Amino acid sequence: MNSRYPPVSLIGAPTDIGAGHRGASMGPEALRIAGIGAALSSRGVDVIDRGDIVGPRNPWLPPVDGYRHLNEVLAWNRAVMDALSDEFRAGRLPILLGGDHCLAIGSLSAVARHCRETGKKLRVLWLDAHSDFNTHEVTPSGNIHGMPVACACGLGPDVLTGLGGHVPAMRPDQIRQIGIRSVDPPEKRLIKQYGLDVYDMRYIDEVGMKRTMEAALDGVDADTHLHVSFDVDFLDPSIAPGVGTTVPGGPNYREAQLVMEMIADSGRMGSLDIMELNPALDSHNRTAELAVDLVESLFGKSTLMRD
């Protein structure tokens, strides 16, 4: 087995409970059909598929006090947090197969708690078209998949901000957001107020992806747990149509590969989310296959041998 990477556990979270479109609940199975387990095994990684987390169905109701499906979102995220925490305790690298991005509240809570318990530094790379730094006061929709970063930083309902037993679960200076190109106006003010480190597409256009990733990974060392939260809408919709919240002007295939290869080069990734894949909006599972291709690069696939 590939000793560079710890053993990996695949964990499905088949829900669209926090989203504005139905269909992300089918994402885990689409990733399995695209061969994510076999792809990692072929790279020498020890892979176990833990199956799917079970949670409440999506009632598809309007928002209440600014939140859609808060109780159901809480149940799913508690289950996600517990599942990832079990893998950390077992010395395994969890890959959360989403599901919509509200589930990152659970994964970030688990990762942050793991870092507190082990004395590791936390660095989160948030690969997304959106900052997901909304609150119930400013959200235009009430969809909680637009709030996970805010919740992790202590902005949100107590049941979500305190999920991992520590408020806030993480500080804004522990996250780097890459590929951002759609931010609601009130959200922009919150991002500036809290000093979130955002590498938006204009920044990437100006300095290039290599310098962007060097900046985002600066300070990551042997004492760092690197968590990657990969929303498939990070990618340009011309190559990844299977998402409910497409935003034109995202990273192209080579830029996305470089992101993944530089993360792999760091050797510090300790957990991964793959979120918002919506097969109902895809074409012949093309987006899932691309996601699997990129995940292979996260685990060391490259054109040439690089030391």
Describe the structure in your own words:
- The chain has 307 residues and is an alpha/beta fold.
- The protein has one domain (8-298): Ureohydrolase domain (Arginase, Chain A, 3-Layer(aba) Sandwich), CATH 3.40.800.10.
- It is 36% helix and 16% strand.
- It has an 8-stranded parallel sheet, sandwiched between helices.
- Helix 10 (253-266) runs parallel beside helix 11.
- It is globular, with a radius of gyration of 17 Å.
- The protein starts with 7 loop residues before the first strand and ends in a 9-residue tail after the last helix.
- Pathway: Nitrogen metabolism; urea cycle; L-ornithine and urea from L-arginine: step 1/1.
- It holds the Pfam family Arginase.
- Find the count of extended strands (DSSP E, 2+ residues): 8
Strand order of the largest sheet: 2-1-3-8-7-4-5-6
Anisotropy-based shape: globular
Overall number of structural domains: 1
Query: Uncertain runs with pLDDT below 50, 5 residues or more?
Result: none
CATH superfamily: Ureohydrolase domain
Main sheet makeup: 8 strands, parallel
As an assembly, this protein is: single chain
The string of secondary-structure elements, in order, is EHHEHEHEHHEHEHHEHEH
How many DSSP helices? Answer: 11
CATH topology: Arginase, Chain A
The percent range for strand residues is 15-25%
Mean pLDDT across residues: 96
CATH structural class? Alpha Beta
How large is the radius of gyration? 17 Å
The percent of residues in helical segments reads 25-40%
CATH architecture: 3-Layer(aba) Sandwich
Summing up helix and strand content along with how strands pair, one would put the structural category as alpha/beta
Catalytic activity: L-arginine + H2O = urea + L-ornithine
GO biological process, one term: urea cycle
Pathway: Nitrogen metabolism; urea cycle; L-ornithine and urea from L-arginine: step 1/1
Organism: Luteimonas gilva
